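Worked example 3. Consider a protein that binds zinc ion.
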Amino acid sequence: MQIAKYSLGTGDRFGLQGKAQLAAIEKARRRGVELSIVWNKSHREHCIVGSSPQDVRNEADKAVKDLNYQGQYFVDADHIGIDNVDLFMDSSDFFTLDVADFIGRKSDKKSLTAFLEKQSRFIGKLTIPGINRPLEVSKEELQSIAEKYLYAVQEAGKIYRYIKEKRNGEDFVTEVSMDETAKPQSPVEMLFILAALADEKIPAQTIAPKFSGRFNKGVDYIGDVNQFHQEFDEDLCIIQFAVEHFDLPSDLKLSVHSGSDKFSIYGSIRELIRRHDAGIHVKTAGTTWLEELIGLAEAGGKGLEIAKQIYISSYGRFDELCAPYVSVIDIDRNALPTVAEVTNWTSLQFVDALRHDQDCPEYDVNLRQLLHVGYKVAAEMGQTYMDALYENEDIVAKNVTENLFDRHIKPLFL
Ligand SMILES: [Zn+2]
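Given these inputs, the predicted complex is written out as structure tokens:
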């Protein structure tokens, strides 16, 4: 089972926007870009919303049927580990093996020695085509990389083999993710991680490293864009080199997590994947939920009231809602609009504050991030929230499709 060169991960908190998301993919196809769609949802999200992996499968199948979509689509068991993968086994055909928590644990001596022996061929000055400075790999560095990453890759191997056995011949796509960690991986680290993945015989088709800079949820990239450009460029060179030297799928590609709304690096990604003729997987998630809120606010009346209620409640439950996301949001609490202010907002004021239009002076990066994590409040509203989505289906869908197509697919692929 091979995923297409370009793919887009579309999360959907409440499971009603599958069709609107797929419409964006269809729109891209009509403009000449083939994109696979991957509905991703993590265990964390399922727990907060109260949904199950099978719900995502049902949503995806239904959207595909309703639109008579002929392209490739997947359901991603996002950020799973050995403890929760069983929940996803039957409904998913894309598994993101998250081993970030195992980085830094030391593997056993025998494995370490074997790895070091095998990879010592790269010690010294290493020339990677496309990288215009020789990489220096010392024995000590190789050892410290092995001590830092080998165990995590072995854990990925364990999960991969477990899935393979349980799936009993049912094919699936494998992604390995190491993005939810404090420090970015250097190109040299990336090289040896890929070597270890090949040793574990994990046919990874996508790999999600931690890039430098901040990939906060629902907002633009924060960091040095030039540095990202260079790093992304070098990672693509490393992947090409690794594919030629190790036993890895030839179409192995990078996966960018929290990839929605990172407008200031889309130019780099677009340019570099074209230059390297490389593929890419971009995961978006909460951005669809925020478009639901924008649609409700835009509809006015009861929809706007619900959007306001969600903000007001999120404002009051700031600490609780932010806690699970503390490493991927940066909210200036004092700059948030107050409850009194938002209560009196018009439709337009709410929409302008929330919609990710950086040219709009009313756009509010703090409010947007708080609402991003506020989906728990909507989940607790239950039927009231869902009914509002049904009642305003058209306007919500329009926002969902436009956001994916105009703000994401266009700058990345068209
Ligand atoms: Zn991730």
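Take a moment to read the result before moving on. The chain has two domains: 6-286, 289-409. Residues 216 and 328 are 5 Å apart (CA to CA).
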